[in-house]
Amino acid sequence: MPYPAPRHRPRWWTELTLIAVVYAAYSAGRLLARGDVTTAVGHGMAILRAEKALLLNAEHPLNRLFTQTPALGIPADFAYASLHYLVTPAILVWLFRRRPARYHAARTWLMLSTLLGLVGFTLLPTCPPRLLDAGQGFVDTMAQYSSYGWWGGEASAPRGLGAMTNQYAAMPSLHVGWALWCGVMLWRHGRTPLMKVLGVAYPLLTTLVVMGTANHYFLDAVAGAAVMGVGALLTRPAMRLADRVRTRVRAAPYGSKSPIVSAGCETSAGERIPGQRTSSAGADDSTPAAAR
Predict the structure, then answer these.
(1) 151: three-class secondary structure by DSSP
(2) Residues with Cβ < 8 Å from 209, sequence gap 6 or more?
(3) Which tops the pLDDT comparison, 268 or 134?
(4) Are the C-beta atoms of 143 and 153 separated by less than 8 Å?
């Protein structure tokens, strides 16, 4: 079923303000959702044990490959630190300009899924592989190759700003979730084979990057995709609810007032409102106006 059609073309200033407010709330929520370190480490170890039991532990071989091969590890770190900040807004702008009829649904899906991810960070603080004990065999490639980029040893934040990020917000991986959203947008609305290829390659590449840099587990990536799936299911009802609320808000100032200027009051035949002038055309009797 199609999403509800927008009633008007989106305005760039209102959309920019809305996105900025949601992202600020998301960023602040990540910081406030910082959990106990011991709890976060416990969750990380539980995920790692589950992956080993299910033979899903692809993080170790990928991390060793990126650690031993700078030609792969350094570009992967740049990709992890920058692409989700560049590609996601770029596709939003592209949809706004070239596919305005699809923009509202796409933006709503992205925002809902992002807020759902914030719920995950709050309920399940998780230590990423790179912050586990060294005995677990992971190397923090962001720290190893920090001299090549703007980041330090604290996630992908610029040097000195590590305190402004929550390093235990690993479950779900919104790097993967946002990349999946970008891929779907490119596949659905791109008109060239190249865009469709990029729509498939980008989320797959992002999944490899987040695991190879030891920033996420494979199950974090799965959870990121699941969050986007739930967000997609909630998009249509959320848009309908927003339309109903918007309609009621617009109608509220006029709902209790009569559209008739006299508010329903009528004058009797021949009665005039005090002070009302009588036009000369209407004075059809012979009595002079002064005599009245």
Answers:
(1) strand
(2) 76, 79, 80, 175
(3) 134
(4) yes
Residue 272: per-residue pLDDT: 52
Q: Give the span between the Cα atoms of 140 and 128, in whole angstroms.
A: 10
Pick 116 or 25 by higher pLDDT.
116
Q: What is the pLDDT of residue 72?
A: 96
Distance of CA 240 to the CA centre of its chain: 18
**Residue 172, preceding peptide bond in cis (omega within 30° of 0):** yes
pLDDT number for residue 117 = 92
pLDDT (tens digit, 9 = 90+) per residue, 147-156?
888 876 666 6
Which residue from 86, 88, 120, 92 is spatially nearest to 106, judged by alpha carbons?
A: 92
Whether the Cβ atoms of residue 175 and residue 210 lie closer than 8 Å to each other? yes
CA 134 vs CA 36, 73, 131, 139: distances in Å: 20, 19, 8, 8
Q: What is the per-residue DSSP string for 259-271?
A: SSTTTT--PPTT-
Q: CA-CA distances (angstroms) from residue 55 to 47, 49, 115, 171?
A: 12, 10, 31, 19
Do 203 and 180 meet the contact criterion of CB atoms below 8 Å apart? yes
| Residue pair 223/171 in contact by the 8 Å Cβ criterion | yes
The structure's pTM equals 0.78
